[in-house]
Amino acid sequence: CFGRRAELEAAHGQRGSNTNKCHRVSWPDSDTPDQKWESFVRCGTLDFTIVDGIKCYSRGKANDYSDYPDSGFDVTEDNATKSFWVSSRNRLFHFLVTRALRQSGGKRVLEIGCGTGDLLSKIAEDKSLNVTGSEIYIKGLMFAKAKAPKVDFVQYDASEGALAERFDVIAAFDVLEHIQEDRKTMANVFHMLPVNARLVVSVPQYMFLWSNLDEIVMHKRRYSRREMVEKLIACGFEVERATSFVFLLFPLMVLSRLFDRTSGKPQVEEQALEKRVKFSRLSNTVFDAVMRLDELLIRMGLSLPFGGTLVVVARKPA
């Protein structure tokens, strides 16, 4: 391993590099041992180049939009201040990240897949925090950087390796479902956390809810609670909490997704996405009020039994 690592470092020494120690992890029903080991040799050295002041670790993917539609960033930005879903998730996830920081006793935060930076800009309002945002696609980073110019942003595919920095909390909200190699990503996150640090993650829940919307935004899967927990434990995490979200609105969500499944394939990507995520002012007001009850129940420590989203908090044990 270390001979190969030295070759990699020598080969890439002309550009910036991000060097970590090699280590082994394992998970069930995955690659062969040799393939797993080689993947973590590649984690040992991540090269970067600077583009528009941003460290780019995965520059070849910065504009390919193979895991998320280009138009998704525009639609998200246009609806960020109006959408009940964006408002509710930002309130809840901000609360969970803040609490995880208190539990971890640190100030360093990384959001993987920060998108247009709406949540990250709110987290960064706490000037005592050291905040980093990562996004694989440059378009999202441009939106995010405009909202939070003092945040350290990096272009980065978390499935390719671990950054050299360590973080007290890493957040990944609605990200893992876009990544084919989600277990590698979880293992890389584990490597970037010191002991007692936390991962706060959300993913869409239940494959029976699969619809045209999942295909439009290029999901690879929807998760069950069991699948998510088992994958995290296999990567070394201790799961502290798992709860559903979008609980009270779940019956409406089921009906909406079943109807969407029978409505035929969408023809124009951006219009199809906007149609499915844009609601009237009245609907947004009513749904926002209902979602606040979901948020309250979770803040009280309850684990909601079902819902469209799964939220998990996991700790790196000693």
Folded structure, characterized:
Mean pLDDT is 86; it is low at 1-15 and 20-44. β4, α5 (118-123) and β5 form a beta-alpha-beta unit. By secondary structure, the chain is of the alpha/beta class. It has helices at 2-11, 33-44, 70-79, 84-104, 118-123, 138-147, 182-191, 212-216, 225-234, 250-261, 269-277, 281-299; strands spanning 16-19, 45-51, 54-56, 108-112, 130-135, 152-155, 169-173, 198-204, 238-245, 309-315. The protein is built from twelve helices and ten strands. A ten-stranded mixed sheet has the order 1-2-3-6-5-4-7-8-10-9, with helices on both faces. The longest helix is centred in the N-terminal third of the chain and has 21 residues, at 84-104. α3 runs parallel beside α11 (269-277) and α4 (84-104) runs parallel beside α12 (281-299).
